[in-house]
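Subject: sequence -> structure tokens, single chain

Hey, anyone have a minute? Need the predicted structure for the following. Not urgent.
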Amino acid sequence: MRIEHIALWTARLEVMKDFYETYFGAKANAKYTNDKKQFGSYFLTFESGARLELMESATTVPRSDDANIQRIGFIHIAISTGSEEAVTALTATLRAHGFTIHSEPRRTGDGYYESSVLDPDGNVVEITV
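Reply:
Had a minute. Here:
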């Protein structure tokens, strides 16, 4: 078995689509819209075949949590860049473009080289090798 896709609600569908396309090489499908339900979505496909569904609806409510507080549920998405140099370079690019760096590039206790950034909605995105 494999995870087919992961979905995120957002109030800024186009901003989020642009973020994942620009910095992580995702390719968006044509936007799906359901005017009756006031719903719109994109499926973003990454080079590996993994997919992220971004969804927007007039009925969603903003979240009130802090990225630094541990909570129950899905907490981050990890995207592999292929090398330590790419992790460091992408982190620098995201910083230069004004995104919040959640954790600097580092080697973790279990041997991973990673950093993390907050996407435009404040979701944690781990940048890994």
